Protein 1
Amino acid sequence: MYHLDGRVALVTGGAVGIGRGIATRLAQEGCDIAIVDLDFAGAQETAAMVQASGRRALALAVDVADGAAVAAGVAQVRATLGPVDIAVNNAAITGVGRVVDLEPAAWRRMFAINTDSVFHVAQAVLPDMIARRGGKIVNIASWFGKIGKPSYAAYSASKAAVIAFTQSLAAEVAPLGINVNAVCPGSIVGTRMREDADRMSREQGLPTARERAHLIPLGRVGEPDDIARVVAFLASDEAAYMTGQAINVTGGLWMN
Ligand SMILES: NC(=O)c1ccc[n+]([C@@H]2O[C@H](COP(=O)([O-])OP(=O)(O)OC[C@H]3O[C@@H](n4cnc5c(N)ncnc54)[C@H](O)[C@@H]3O)[C@@H](O)[C@H]2O)c1
């Protein structure tokens, strides 16, 4: 549908959840896929799904918070599949905690995984994109990067930083033919992060994501493919005139 045939896409956090949805959707659009994740078994499962759809796949065990490991991983992708045309920064963690109680190490870890990773991947893939005067970077942020919530200061701040980084980088590389955009998911089920969040909600006597679905204007929670379809669009030439955007995919839950 988006004519991505033969492009090489790297997806971080592609072992499960939204990342797996993005990897399999981009494969259906014709991309060869590198799945970069700490969860190597899950990354291999996603790779098998990609191969079943007729595309090449490479699973790599990489901690995206580690810049040297990311650089080595991208070099391996280059050697195996070719230079990266599309980089999707999706790996992240979440966590709750009031600011007054938050351990500095937990704050740092949130930024290392959610924010530093986006910088590391961009640094690793940009030289080839600049040399070829083209490429797409899609960063998965969150609607929590646009609005703060109690107990989510670290996560929200890490995602707000991803949005600001997206805008700055987009302006920097626009003259080089490279598009950089962000996607801000709302309440997406079928992911490990959501299962953990729902478990914490239940423990505190709070409603789960599905139980809050009536608050979403479109009347349902999101699925990984709701995000993946928008990523595929942003990775395509259909979105050639879009850069520096942070697109909400929330069923109308957040509109700014
Ligand atoms: N699920 C939601 O409702 C929701 C809402 C808004 C934003 N998001 C964002 O969407 C993205 C995907 O979320 P998800 O719900 O699919 O999460 P998930 O927990 O199901 O998947 C995250 C993946 O990232 C990997 N990962 C974590 N730390 C890593 C590290 N240091 N190095 C390499 N890989 C690492 C995990 O192993 C996992 O495979 C995240 O950026 C998240 O913040 C999710």
Protein 2
Amino acid sequence: MREVIKKTWGWDEAWQLTDFDRRLAAYVVSIIEAEHRAAGSLWLEWKPDSLYIHEVQVLPEFQGKGLGTEVVQHVIKQGAHRRLPVTLSVVPANPRAKRLYERLGFEVTGVEPPFIRMRHSASVKGAV
Ligand SMILES: CC(C)(COP(=O)(O)OP(=O)(O)OC[C@H]1O[C@@H](n2cnc3c(N)ncnc32)[C@H](O)[C@@H]1OP(=O)(O)O)[C@@H](O)C(=O)NCCC(=O)NCCS
């Protein structure tokens, strides 16, 4: 995420470390495993009205193999079980992530710079 963060806010190592600890305590964090190795992480928050993806990260050597797609699809199914839409935010400096979300059916619901808010509502409509 470093390049995306640098382009959007600039990089402050001390702030990043503190914020990492805050997020680790606040969200449901899962390790994505592939080929018996840790390949990435998924940071979720169950909000009353949506399942919010705070972060999904796949290590560079595992990218482009469909892992990110599979993980986000899994989250959409988790939301569907509880009839909750899946929401997330993405920044313009991360077009690859935005493309992935759009391909999976997420729609832009608002822009609050630097964030583009997105939502996947098929689960609420019973389409998943
Ligand atoms: C965004 C991110 C999570 C996507 O994960 P990923 O595992 O690479 O995603 P996928 O492999 O499912 O799809 C990514 C691309 O690979 C392509 N792809 C999917 N399966 C593929 C396969 N079997 N072979 C080759 N390419 C494939 C997809 O078409 C997609 O192409 P695109 O970039 O042109 O849209 C990953 O790039 C990442 O961790 N980035 C850094 C962190 C980040 O920005 N996270 C999001 C914000 S928190």
